[in-house]
C-alpha cells in the first residue's frame, strides 16, 4: 500500500471531528466508506457491519432473503416434527434441532434487515456515503485523548 499524504490529512481531519462529536455526547461510528475514505457516521446510519464476524451479507434485501429461507426451514422443521403423528407414529424429535436453530436465526435476520433498511434510508436522506465492509484500520494516537500513551488528566 502506498502512503498518500492527502488521504492521511483527510483521515486525521475526520478523526478529529469524530472525537469532538463523541466528546460532545453524540453516538458516532468511525468507518471507511466503499470508496475507502474515512467517515464519521451517526450510530443510526449503520445498520449492521458485514465482514466483521457476524453477517456476511451486505444489504437489507440480502438479509431479507436469509429471513425468508429461515422461515421456510422453520416451517419444514415443524412439518418434519409433526408428520409422523399423522401416520400414527411418534413425533420425529430430531427436527427440534432445525426448529431451534431457525427459531433463533429468523428474529436475528429480521432485526438486522430492519436495521440496515433504516440505516440505508437515513444515509440516503442525509446524503451520507455507503459504508464499506470489514474492520477499520485507522488510528491516530496523537489526536486521541484516550490513547494509552497519553497521560491521564485529572478533572
Description:
This protein is mainly α. The chain has 2 domains: 62 residues, no CATH class; 71 residues. 50% of the residues lie in helices and 6% in strands. It has 3 helices and 2 strands; from the N terminus they run H-E-E-H-H. A two-stranded antiparallel sheet has the order 1-2. Strand 1 and strand 2 form a beta hairpin. Helix 2 runs antiparallel to helix 3. About 3% of the residues have low confidence.
Give short descriptive properties of this protein:
2 domains; mainly alpha; 2 strands
Would you kindly provide a brief summary of this structure?
This protein is mostly helical and 155 residues long. The chain has 3 helices and 2 strands; from the N terminus they run αββαα. It has 2 domains: 1-46 and 131-146, no CATH class; 56-126.
Q: Give me the count of strands.
A: 2
Give me the Rg, rounded.
Answer: 23 Å
What sort of overall outline do the alpha carbons produce when their principal axes are compared? Answer: elongated
Quaternary structure state of the chains depicted: single chain
Overall mean pLDDT stands at: 82
Q: What's the number of structural domains?
A: 2
* Biggest sheet strand line-up: 1-2
Order of helices and strands: HEEHH
Residue share in helices?
40-55%
Secondary structure tally, helices: 3
How far apart are the termini? 42 Å
Task: Tell me the β content.
Answer: 5-15%
Contiguous low-pLDDT stretches (5 residues minimum) are 147-151
Based on secondary structure, the structural category is: mainly alpha
Main sheet: strands, sense, barrel: 2 strands, antiparallel
